[in-house]
Amino acid sequence: MAAGTDVAQSEVPYQVSFRLIEQDRHLASGAIVNVRFVITQASFIWKLLRSYPEQPLSSLARIRLGQVELRSKADDRFYSISSYTYHPDFDFEAARNDVALVRTVGYIELNKFVQPIELRNGPIPEGGVVLYTDWGAEKGNVGGPLVMIEDGRPQLIGVMSYVYRACNANVPGGFERLWNHYDWITKMTTIDYSHTNFGEMCRAVRNVAAQLLTQNKESVRRRRAIKASMLK
């Protein structure tokens, strides 16, 4: 991976940034799996907790969604962390099974800038083209999603496990192959609706529906304006 280009948030609505609460500093990236779970690199959590042994992850970091700028803004959306789970065979020293699932406090509200990504159940086919997105900072350039586009659908195939120099063509980075952990991920991210606050879910659904309706009305208005201008 070398250089790279800027992307719009609508192109990568699954991308998240884990932020150090005290300094609002980018720690690592991740991807939205569903309305309660984000997937990322396990090692960054392990190292953060080693640095602050007396504090839980929930008091150290939070998750920022819907934004591609590195610096946070006043209207950014943040979610607190409820819990996290390392892969059962995670080995920090060997950098193996370097993946973790992070559960949010409350349901993630979805819109065109905040969307989950499908998890691919299988390896990259021969000749397949992949996309990696991150903020390019040498510190925090881990956990980012490696994605393959198939039939127009983005599919998550990996997360960045290690990188020696950010965006350097001469030094390779390493990715955790998520299709090897497909069964574990799908099992752990299954949502138990028996204790669900359906009022909260309904509000989230209504918000998304209202946003989509507004976007559709705006799209119709633009098409009519273009058609009217062509008839003049």
Automatic annotation (TrEMBL):
One of its GO terms (molecular function) is serine-type endopeptidase activity. It comes from the Eukaryota. The keyword Secreted applies. InterPro entries: Peptidase_S1_PA, Peptidase_S1_PA_chymotrypsin, Ser/Thr_Proteases_Immune/Dev, Trypsin_dom. SUPFAM superfamilies: Trypsin-like serine proteases. Keywords: Disulfide bond, Glycoprotein, Immunity, Innate immunity, Secreted, Signal. It holds the Pfam family Trypsin. It is found in: Secreted. GO terms for cellular component: extracellular region. GO terms for biological process: innate immune response; proteolysis. Residues 1-190 form the Peptidase S1 domain. Belongs to the peptidase S1 family. CLIP subfamily. This is Peptidase S1 domain-containing protein. It comes from Anopheles epiroticus.
